[in-house]
Amino acid sequence: MRLKGRHVVITGASGGIGEQIAYEAARQGAVPVLLARNVERLKEISARIKAQYGVSAPHMELDVSDREMVEAVFSQLLKELGGIDVLVNNAGFGVFRYIEDIDLAEMEAMFAVNVFGVIACTKSVYSHMKERGSGHIINIASQAGKIATPKSSVYSATKHAVIGFTDSLRLEASRFGVFVTAVNPGPVETRFFDLADETGDYVRNVSRWMLRPEAVAKRVVAVMMTPTREVNMPGWMDVGSRLYRLAPGLVEKVAKRAFFQK
């Protein structure tokens, strides 16, 4: 009953982790609000949620990199819903390239979506949550934000930024009863890699360790409206990132071959 009737707004809800969060939130009685650029896909997911769980799932088009659009969409949502209980900043993408091959336009796009989009969406709901004295902002970051590996320099930089933003926001928001959580999954079996890993080499190398989006979604929904600092998956990768903070040189030396799996 913790989530019964709660409005859970999810960016990047047209597939992958975002789609699965919507299903799991609906299963637990919440009202998932679906935001993404692919409106047709959102319609399909909304209809499926209604059919399977008997829960309405409002949906709207949103490009999180368009600041004017972000402001307009969230203003409309707050007006129509009367309140937003949980915001899941899930929209994001990555492209894996060595530094000499990085396209600067891709770099700007990654920061626009992965970082500036997260901040813009958060800012659109934070004052509302602060005034209510309750709410939860969940930012989907990545283990790449804790351990940067070859070919992921820009993507890792964006996720480092998300973790830094989340840590600062958590301290600020705690004064007003608003929870803030960072979710740091390792590689997840989604279409993310259709773009990030065009050759398919990385997916082939790490397929046995990849997380299912349903598993990540269950963990995310399980911590909604609770004062959870971080969700780190899988456990062994979390241990690795902790060791990395303690002895980065040693970890880089021992795990160098694994780091070049991309």
Automatic annotation (TrEMBL):
It holds the Pfam family adh_short. The keyword Oxidoreductase applies. It comes from the Bacteria. It is an enzyme of class 1 (oxidoreductase). Keywords: Oxidoreductase. One of its GO terms (molecular function) is oxidoreductase activity. InterPro entries: NAD(P)-bd_dom_sf, Sc_DH/Rdtase_CS, SDR_fam. Its EC number is 1.-.-.-. PANTHER family: DEHYDROGENASE/REDUCTASE SDR FAMILY MEMBER 7B, DEHYDROGENASE_REDUCTASE SDR FAMILY MEMBER 7B. Belongs to the short-chain dehydrogenases/reductases (SDR) family. This is SDR family oxidoreductase. It comes from Geobacillus thermodenitrificans.
